[in-house]
């Protein structure tokens, strides 16, 4: 698939078939995400690949809003950053997560980012348990690593998305000559 076609096709997918993601596709996505640029070449991003359905069901409960659909994904990749390697771990991890999502799209796999960092486990308790603390309670997150997001990945059960309509004339683009 050509790069610009990937960009035009990419959209958030929250409904997946039961078909598993091949190990070859997982390897290709991770290799791509590991190649993402990082501040000062710190390579502060890391990934946790989860295929276990019981763990995925638990991950879906990380927030009481916006993450329930994760339960039906055959694959979840946590994108983490090492705050010891870079104070810009969040930026680096964001770039890596985007590369991961674009690689998934190139492989015709649906995917959706679910933000973890700074989000509460329960929306009505913003000062209570965080989504990250909840995930740490049952996943082996290495010391010094922070979780930016979870990317749910799988074969899409949704109809094709409409092509994007963004143009260079969009009011979000400021041109200075």
Overall SS class: alpha+beta
By DSSP, the count of extended strands is 4
Largest beta-sheet characterization: 4 strands, antiparallel
- Range of strand content: 15-25%
Characterize this entry briefly.
The protein is α+β, with helices and mostly antiparallel strands and 177 residues long.
Question: What labels describe this entry?
Answer:
5 helices; single chain; 17% strand; 177 residues; four-stranded antiparallel β-sheet; alpha+beta; NADH Oxidase; 29% helix; globular
Model description:
Helices cover 29% and strands 17% of the residues. It is an alpha+beta fold and 177 residues long. The protein has one domain (3-154): NADH Oxidase, CATH 3.40.109. α2 (23-34) packs antiparallel against α4 (89-106). The chain is globular, with a radius of gyration of 17 Å. The mean pLDDT is 93.
Layout of helices and strands:
Layout (H helix, E strand, L loop, with lengths): L2 H7 L13 H12 L10 E6 L2 H8 L14 E8 L6 H18 L3 E6 L15 H6 L8 E10 L23
Antiparallel strand pairs: 1-2, 2-4, 3-4
Helix pairs in contact: 2-4
């Amino acid at each position: 698939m050509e790069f610009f076609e990937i960009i035009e096709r990419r959209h958030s997918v929250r409904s997946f078939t039961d078909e598993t993601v091949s190990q070859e596709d997982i390897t290709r996505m991770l290799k791509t995400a590991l190649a993402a640029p990082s501040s000062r070449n710190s390579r502060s991003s890391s990934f946790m690949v989860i295929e276990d359905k019981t763990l995925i069901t638990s991950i879906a409960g990380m927030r009481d809003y916006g993450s329930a659909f994760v339960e039906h994904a055959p694959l979840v990749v946590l994108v983490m950053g090492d705050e010891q390697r870079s104070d810009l771990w969040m930026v680096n991890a964001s770039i890596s997560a985007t590369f991961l999502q674009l690689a998934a799209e190139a492989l015709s796999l649906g995917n959706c980012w679910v933000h973890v960092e700074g989000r509460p486990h329960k929306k009505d308790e913003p000062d209570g348990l965080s989504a990250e603390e909840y995930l740490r309670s049952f996943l082996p997150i290495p010391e010094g690593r922070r979780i930016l997001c979870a990317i749910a990945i799988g074969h899409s059960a949704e109809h094709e998305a409409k092509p994007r309509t963004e143009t260079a004339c969009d009011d979000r683009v400021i041109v200075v000559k």
